């Protein structure tokens, strides 16, 4: 449809802009990271405080790098390299908890804030068919959003479960926080690319990326949120068919759903 074409053109233009911005940011942060690392390694006379500050700088630079990578990833032409494999969602959750530790453990603690993280994993969870890197990226975005929503601490629960549905069942992966929640207008718009309530600190691409991922996986997303009442984002994936999955090397590329 006309609306769809316009939307795709707009996204392409935004993509070009985003990739230009990503390039500039990478150039700007590279020397910051390099000098912080060099100081930490080559200056034995640094005070404890100086050392701690440099470590925070290093970690912040890592985070910026990861954000830029996600922004790039969002627009990359994915079809050719996209390979499906059977994926264990429990494994993805565990890996994402490890990958994001600096954001919910170390950084908040430096500010005297406590975020408890709990994994509630269904041991009998069936496999899904998908792209591991994309699923990890999406869950990482959800964890970052949850942490952002709890500046004074709180609880983060990652939960997996199986839901029988007519036909094949679904694997449900929930990321639940006890944070600030969303008002009605934010809930309505939160998945739009570039919609953010975080001002300069936000890209507005987190949930848009998650949405693109779940669409490509033939699944759906549910968001349950209330102002001051926390947020639960659930990703529902169709379970892998009873038939064995094709070997990853020979697997067909995922069809790319229009954004
Ligand atoms: P960003 O995090 O860069 O703002 P997102 O697309 O990930 O971009 O999120 C868009 C907006 O949705 C956020 O700015 C925030 O207002 C809202 N949001 C997303 N996740 C949560 C959450 N867990 N709790 C409260 N608000 C959220």
TrEMBL record:
It is found in: Membrane. Residues 20-241 form the Histidine kinase domain. It comes from Duganella rivi. This is histidine kinase. The chain holds residues 453 to 711 of 836 of the full protein.
